Backbone:
């Protein structure tokens, strides 16, 4: 039985012409880390808020642990949520912040101390219990928010961009810790983010959303390697998948699969590539330029490992798309059947 | 730049205040140009006079009861008005009206509403057979006190509501939502989270109300003139009756200065609170 499931979940905000969430079907697997990924306005946070009971769906069903929860208050859903702002109670100490869900759910006071200390120890914040939120750093606040979510031992964690208020360096370590923690606790987690790196690193499965709809659901490798449509293809990856028109279809290939023909195995496609710009990114190099032949006038990126000899700006070389790495999309942007290899 | 403001405050507040101190220590009367220093005799006289003792007690009852009602009412209203609903703007405007309208007009309106013969309340009460004989709202000591307290509460409520509403609005939406997800219901969310968060603002609003009420006589003066038999007399109205209408400037000054030390402490606490009133 899925821990959380939505069926045809739809949300239309009063006074707004647009549908914020448009028929979303989700099904989490037990103990899974499910990531909702999408640009701002894609409806991912609204889905999370509807699961939490903070927004009422316009139509559709939400099931938690197999039971319909539409119309139930957040309290009755027995879930835990971490907000983007952490939403710590500023007038309470860290101890009382973490203990608040226990008090609110009527857990006997005698049990509070042990539970709070257990949750605090998981995140290494036992030393901060007497402080107030304003005396904490961003990373410490985030841990307090996680401990407050954990302390009630919920069946489901909802996390709304919990890392986005941390600085870049801290974010990488926090991401790693979050993943470790979720593996250890094994609680099903729904995680909302607009950051594809977070989504790929954390998610067992990623749900890519745009304009209120689910574009694709799959493992990080699925959505990256086999995007269901051109939106997913360009939303994931930095730089995104190259897309070029090719006789009625759109040909897509990742920059890292687009390399000089010389010394490479014969690829799916071969085309002249005039290099206009080269960026050195340390571990690899980003080449930006214009295609020739059948694709004349189209621009593309190529990502080359640093040990590959790099062409110079202004050079025109033959490049290939690696065998098995070309993807095709129809005129509506959806995945189409592959076309036989040929040279351009 | 500050000079006009200093001059203004000096002329309109400082001079009368110093004059009041001087008067309270002398035996100055209207229609007499003699003035001798008498020390604290005016204060001692006031303390022993039954009228003063009644007014002192009334002042505390009037202030504490009305401010308690204002606090409870304003909290309720602010919580209700914080939610978005269709006619919220109109309701907010209507609630603010008693504060915007001149208090003398409002009080005169209430004087008619509570009149012994023309009271609409009595008309309804009698027609609905709640009472047999119409109550004398302003003529019976207990009812008169209740009436002035309620009218003053009506008058002070809007301001306190607006201050509390501003405080509640400044709380990020995430916080009550987090409380809801944590399992808190309406009462717990408000009594343990949102209201404690705006406590500094509430404190300032209450202390402001306390000072304002202790030093104000409009409602009492218009509705009852302190009657019947001084049972609703408060210190400011007694000071006015004694000093201005009765001509005993020295005694009036002593009465009006009596609570000054107490209010000074309240004002000091209020300013300290105001400095710390930072939400989140």
Residues:
């Amino acid at each position: 039985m899925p821990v959380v499931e939505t069926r045809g979940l739809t949300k239309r905000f009063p006074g707004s012409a647009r549908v914020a969430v448009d028929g979303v079907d989700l099904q989490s697997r037990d103990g899974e880390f499910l990531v909702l990924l999408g640009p701002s306005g894609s409806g991912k946070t609204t889905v999370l808020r509807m699961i939490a009971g903070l927004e009422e769906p316009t139509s559709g069903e939400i099931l938690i642990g197999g039971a319909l929860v539409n119309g139930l208050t957040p309290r009755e859903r027995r879930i835990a949520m971490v907000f983007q702002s952490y939403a710590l109670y500023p007038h309470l100490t860290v101890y009382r912040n973490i203990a608040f869900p226990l008090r609110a759910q009527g857990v006997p006071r005698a049990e509070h101390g042990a539970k709070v200390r257990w949750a605090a120890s998981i995140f290494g914040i036992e030393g901060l219990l007497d402080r107030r939120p304003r005396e904490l750093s961003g990373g410490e606040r985030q841990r307090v928010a996680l401990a407050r979510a954990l302390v009630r031992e919920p069946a489901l964690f909802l996390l709304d961009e919990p890392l986005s208020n941390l600085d870049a360096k801290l974010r990488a370590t926090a991401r790693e810790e979050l993943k470790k923690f979720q593996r250890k606790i094994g609680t099903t987690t729904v995680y909302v983010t607009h950051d594809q790196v977070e989504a790929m690193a954390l998610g067992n499965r990623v749900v890519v959303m745009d304009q209120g709809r689910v574009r694709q659901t799959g493992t990080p490798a699925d959505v990256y390697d086999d995007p269901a449509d051109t939106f997913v293809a360009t939303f994931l990856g930095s730089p995104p998948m190259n897309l070029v028109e090719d006789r009625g279809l759109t040909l897509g290939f990742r920059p890292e699969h687009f390399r000089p023909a010389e010394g490479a195995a014969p690829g799916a496609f071969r085309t002249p590539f005039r290099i206009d710009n080269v960026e050195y990114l340390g571990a690899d190099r980003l080449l930006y330029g214009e295609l020739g032949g059948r694709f004349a006038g189209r621009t593309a990126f190529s990502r080359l490992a640093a040990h590959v000899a790099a062409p110079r700006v202004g050079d025109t070389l033959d490049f290939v798309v690696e065998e098995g790495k070309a993807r095709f999309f129809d005129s509506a942007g959806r995945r189409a059947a592959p076309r036989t290899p040929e040279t351009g | 730049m500050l000079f006009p403001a200093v001059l203004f405050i000096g002329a309109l507040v400082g001079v009368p205040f110093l004059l009041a101190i001087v008067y309270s220590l002398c035996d100055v009367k209207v229609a007499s140009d003699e003035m001798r220093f008498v020390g604290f005799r005016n204060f001692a006289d006031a303390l022993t006079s039954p009228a003063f003792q009644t007014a002192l007690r009334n002042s505390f009852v009037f202030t504490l009861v009305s401010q308690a009602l204002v606090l409870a009412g304003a909290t309720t209203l602010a919580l209700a008005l914080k939610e978005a609903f269709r006619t919220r703007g109109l309701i907010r405007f209507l609630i603010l009206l008693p504060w915007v309208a001149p208090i003398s007009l409002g009080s005169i309106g209430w004087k008619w509403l509570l009149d012994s013969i023309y009271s609409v309340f009595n008309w309804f009460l009698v027609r609905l057979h709640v009472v047999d004989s119409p109550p004398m709202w302003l003529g019976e000591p207990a009812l008169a006190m209740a009436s002035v307290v309620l009218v003053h509460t009506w008058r002070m409520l809007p301001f306190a509501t607006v201050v509390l509403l501003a405080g509640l609005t400044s709380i990020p939406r995430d916080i009550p939502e987090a409380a809801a997800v944590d399992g808190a219901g309406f009462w717990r969310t408000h009594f343990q989270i949102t209201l404690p968060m705006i406590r500094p603002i509430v404190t300032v609003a209450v202390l402001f109300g306390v000072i304002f009420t202790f030093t104000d006589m409009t409602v009492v003066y218009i509705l009852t003139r302190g009657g019947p038999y001084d049972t609703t007399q408060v210190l400011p109205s007694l000071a006015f009756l004694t000093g201005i209408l009765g001509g005993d400037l020295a005694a009036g000054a002593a009465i009006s200065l009596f609570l000054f030390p107490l209010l000074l402490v309240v004002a000091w606490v209020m300013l300290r609170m105001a400095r710390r009133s930072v939400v989140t």
Q: What stands out?
A: Residues 57-232+260-276 of chain B form a domain with the MetI-like fold fold (CATH 1.10.3720.10). The interface with chain A takes residues 172, 174-175, 177-185, 188, 192-193, 196-197, 199, 279-280 of chain B (CB under 8 Å).
